[in-house]
Specification:
The chain contains one helix and seven strands. By secondary structure, it is mainly beta. It has a six-stranded antiparallel beta barrel with strand order 2-3-4-7-6-5. Strand 3 and strand 4 form a beta hairpin. The longest helix has 13 residues. The protein is globular.
Length: 111
């Protein structure tokens, strides 16, 4: 069973919550706010225009706390949808190894 963390803004993560930067290799880096985070994937609300599409394999950096280093991850975009003028996307993690272990440890520490 996946551990699920609903992220919330804090003084340490920034005014909107934990941030993510996604890159699919086709367009500019997309910036977004992590709304849900789990050991299986993430739900991210993108800010501004984006070339991110379902099926894309993306590389991303996650900033869960302002005072902590970013975490590297890779994922596959499961779906995107427009909600209130913003694009929301759902990712499934595809990376393994030390970066995956680091991400899982951060999620466990937030539960």
């Amino acid at each position: 069973m996946a551990t699920l963390v609903e992220t919330m803004p804090s003084a340490r993560s920034g005014p909107q919550g934990p941030m993510a930067w996604l890159e699919n290799g086709r367009g500019p880096i997309a910036r977004g706010v992590v709304e849900l985070l789990s050991t299986q994937g993430a739900h991210i609300r993108l800010m501004g225009e984006s070339s991110i599409e379902p099926g894309d394999e993306v590389e991303l950096r996650l900033s869960l706390d302002r005072d902590s280093p970013t975490v590297a991850a890779t994922g596959q975009v499961v779906f995107t949808q427009e909600v209130d003028g913003a694009i929301e996307c759902e990712l499934e993690w595809t990376h393994t190894g030390p970066e995956r272990e680091q991400l899982e440890a951060l999620i466990a520490a937030r539960t």
